[in-house]
Amino acid sequence: MHKTILFLQPYIILLVLLAGIISCSSQKDTFTNRLYHNTTARFNAYYYAKEKIKELETEIEKEYQEDFSQVLPVFYPIDSSTIEANETLLEEAREMASKAVDWHKISKWVDPAYLLIGRVDYYKGKFDESQNTFKYLNVNSTQDQVRHEALIRLLKSFIDLRQFEDANFVVDYLSKEPAISKENKKLLYKTLAYYYETRGETDMIVPSLFKALEFTDDKAEISRINFILGQMYQIAGLDAFAYEYYQKSLSGSPNYERTFFAQLFSQQVAELEKSKDLKRVRDYYDALYSDNKNIDFRDVILFEKGRFEKKQGNLDEAIRLYSLAVKEPGENERQKGYIYQELSEVFLHEKEDFLKTKYYLDSALSKFKDSDRNYATLASRKVIFDQFAENYEILTRNDSLIGLSRLSPEEQETYVDTYLAREEKRLIQEAELASQKKNTGIFDNLLAFGGSGGSSGSTFYWDNPVAIQRGSLEFNKVWGNRSLTDNWRSSNRSFQDISIEGNQPLSSEIEEDGIEEDSPETALATQLPDKSSLLSQIPNEPERRQLMLEEMENAYFNLGKLLYFDLAEPQKAIANLEMLIEKFPETPKKPEAYYTLFLALRDVDGDAEKYAQLLNTEFPDSQFTKSVNNPDQVSGSQANFESGQNYKEAYGLYREQEYASARSIIRETLNSYPLTKNTDRLLLLDILITGKLESVERYKERLQSFLQNAEDEPLRDFAEKLLKAVSEGEEDVSASEVEELPGEDTAPPDQDLDQLTPKAKESPYKENASQTHIFILPMDEGMAEGSGDLTAALESFHAANFSNERLRTGTIAITRETKILIISPFPNAEKSMNYRETFLSSFNSDSLPEEQKNSSFVISIENFQQLNKRKDLEEYRSFYEQAY
């Protein structure tokens, strides 16, 4: 018998091989064929394709840095850089899934393989292809589990693309489908939570997550969902529920970061916020800080303790803790950004220190990506504080230097020598303080007893801060210094900060209150300036002093306007503008300064009438005087429109040499609408008529006055060209210049201003479609006063159409008459233009006329900084119409 089996064995093997070869046919539908293809498709091609996709999803999860300061997203966001880095995984997954389809056509794994192909296309951003695959499976697949998953993934794709009508249809369809598997129900309810998250319907997120929990056995997923539920309950003020779910999130082996925040937040909602035992609360934070397991989270601990102290009213202690928090090492740069942002808020609202607000905003922005939701808002706010800092620093620097210039050369040298000696002493003291602050743990004490002591620490040079500092200063004396520009808090110090007369501007009290952001190591890097370089900065020549005085004159004026119109600080605006008038009584800015003082004093119930009388006495023909005398004048968009129409008519008469008629229209318009966006162009046209009807001297005098007061840069350039020409003897220059300009019929009425400019020059604005953009809606004064209703309507509009974008709305002044409403952020130009199209077609509000809606535009962050500096909306519109 045994011999018989041995004899038949080769034939048995041959028969098996033959059966295998026959079964390799992908078309023949036999039991053997199906068994073979089902087995090989499942455990070869399909299995490996699915594993590759799992590997990619693990990478997405690993690369995403959770932001625990915000509610965690339902799904891990997909970063394009992660997809690009794992392109090979996706290609391999698609290749293997395609083999499962092409080589095993009769197996039951063809439809699941198609599903994997759709998922690969989704991750690659090929949404049309992926959606077509999912739709195909819904129509053609006989496997309910595959069909349901395809529909759920199609739903998620619709949500990603904000195709909510399509998403609603899929939700309705799935709600009627029977026998959805447990795994698909989990995915469906998570996707529904994502749907509500995207639309901003926060009340519906929690029920959806609860349902998802019912159908998942994945402990890690359960932990993360419970954490999100804890966050949502904490925001809602339901502390007991928040505590429960934070505690639940601790099960399931979460990573240490989530464990830390779950414990921290659960303690906050359970005890810290309600405790009257302040010492116990502070001890809790101190214990967290001392725990070596929390080294990576010490910045968070100090930040949270600072927030606690701020709530108790201990503002200086909160600032100290925030300042310590940003010095702590940490992997989460975004967390540092939140700390700097909080510091900027404190110094803006509580301390009213706008200079430090600016610097902390700089620091905050350096820690956020331009795609982060608060980046654009901070960037637009920073523009205002950049302007404040620039003008404030001009005042402090020039005031000190001009004071020094009044000393004799010997006194100047003595002053600089004293300053350098004082600075050297300060640096040595800081080095000694740094040495004293070093930790003196048990091992340090043992080393000290071992004989390595001394008054300043180690005798080894590189361990001795005082020795390093002395050596650094000696090196500096011999070889000169190297500029320090990396840290504003150190490089900000200079001897110009010390005023000789003690005459500081009144815009802000800069308090050096011991908030030391720099580490001792940074302080030791500070170098003394060179004596000759300090002396060279003193303006001993009259020309330099005069230039600095002119800079101060402009700085006082700019600060006054900035503080009143942008920062809503009328008292500080009044102080700067009164200082301007006191120090520079002949300033050509006086009419506008009087006008702004009138507005500011009216706001604080001061003696506004004083400046109304001064305007009427000293500048009876000024547009600012006319504005004060006509409080019921038509303003806003109607005034802009009417004055623009009148300008067009007057310009046409001017071209026809009907000078008297043109002037009559101009003067009547300026009386009826004193301050509009067309005021400067009307004034310049009136000056051109002066060149025709009056003396050359009067013409030159008016051009000079225009240049001193006009804000529109293109008009200023043109006026300078006219003044230069007439000064060189071309008395009839106005006529020759105007003849070169295009006719009135080549531009719409509201763009006539451009016709009074010389040949077009290169735009200051640059195209950058990939940069973060913001949406801008210009508002006149009347609309700005009712902007609360408009903002509320916009919030509802965003919730319905852009809820996942987390858009923010804010308002700033761009000129005297115009405020702009800013909506941000948008990651690129395309997204911002899509928003504008939806805004124009779908947003309706009684407070927003159609004409005003159409005046909206989008702008990159970089170009917005230019616009806020140049204050010329029409100039940017010209660029916008070409670029967008």
TrEMBL record:
Organism, scientific name: Cyclobacterium jeungdonense
- Region Disordered, residue ranges: 728-767
PROSITE patterns registered for this protein in UniProt: PROKAR_LIPOPROTEIN (PS51257)
Origin, by domain of life?
Answer: Bacteria
Q: Which residues form the signal peptide?
A: none
Where do Acidic residues bias regions lie?
A: 728-743
Name of this chain's protein: Tetratricopeptide repeat protein
Quote the InterPro entries the UniProt record gives: TPR-like_helical_dom_sf, TPR_rpt
